Amino acid sequence: MRVVVADDVMLTRAGIVRLLVDAGIEVVGEAGDGDSAVDAVRRLQPDVAILDIRMPPTHVDEGLVAARAIRSEFPEVGVLVLSEYVEPGYAMELIREQAEGVGYILKERVFDVVVLVDALRRIQDRETVVDPTIVSRLLGRRRRADPLDELSAREREVLGLVAEGRSNRAIAEALFVTERTVEAHIQQIFLKLDLAESPSDHRRVLAVIAFLRR
């Protein structure tokens, strides 16, 4: 896997690079702001770009802007956005237009190399990865005309794990059930969310979007 890392804090960027290199992942480029990150992706064509959400000049959402630019110009390049804060709205904005191959996790988790590498592998496999803390926040949020009201408690739990980017096997292990049981729950989720099977749509991703939608 070839990765570009963008973070304006040099020590943080160097720490992420060191973790990735030690894990056997090739870091082909680094950047300190959003524009430089987009340029690095253009030049180096990595598999995944890791972007801090707050970078110069305004330190507001430059990473998110860069992520959109990268996905628009290079849809085959995965994007992992890092945030110091739990901001579900940014997660939704990131995946709204194209959910496959994107991730949004809290910055503190990147220094757990197992979590970081797992997220990158899932993104490279075109999955959607959302930080478990954000998923928990969304699970506890009350919404008007909530499309998830029809789901059982277990189905909501399964969908929350799907939103984290976990496979059916990983969900089965987390819930101490069989993969067949997980598959049955997911089919019920698709049915209740009115997600008909279509060759042009990825129902798993659409279910995550329904889960994240405000």
Describe the overall structure.
The protein is of the alpha/beta class and 214 residues long. The protein has two domains: 2-129, Rossmann fold, CATH 3.40.50; 142-212, Orthogonal Bundle (Arc Repressor Mutant, subunit A). The chain is 50% helix and 14% strand. The chain is built from ten helices and six strands. It has helices spanning 10-22, 34-44, 62-73, 88-96, 113-124, 132-139, 153-163, 168-175, 179-192, 203-212, and strands at 2-6, 26-31, 48-52, 78-83, 102-106, 128-130. A six-stranded parallel sheet has the order 2-1-3-4-5-6, sandwiched between helices.
Q: What are its keywords?
A:
single chain; 214 residues; alpha/beta; Rossmann fold; Arc Repressor Mutant, subunit A; 2 domains; 6-stranded parallel β-sheet
Count of individual domains: 2
The percent range for strand residues is 5-15%
Strand order of the largest sheet: 2-1-3-4-5-6
Task: Assign the structural class, choosing from mainly alpha, mainly beta, alpha/beta, alpha+beta, or little secondary structure.
Answer: alpha/beta
Largest sheet: 6 strands, parallel
Compact overview of the structure:
The chain has helices at residues 10-22, 34-44, 62-73, 88-96, 113-124, 132-139, 153-163, 168-175, 179-192, 203-212, and strands spanning 2-6, 26-31, 48-52, 78-83, 102-106, 128-130.
What is the element layout, followed by pairings?
Layout: E1 2-6, H1 10-22, E2 26-31, H2 34-44, E3 48-52, H3 62-73, E4 78-83, H4 88-96, E5 102-106, H5 113-124, E6 128-130, H6 132-139, H7 153-163, H8 168-175, H9 179-192, H10 203-212
Parallel strand pairs: 1-2, 1-3, 3-4, 4-5, 5-6
Helix pairs in contact: 2-3, 6-7, 7-9, 7-10, 8-9
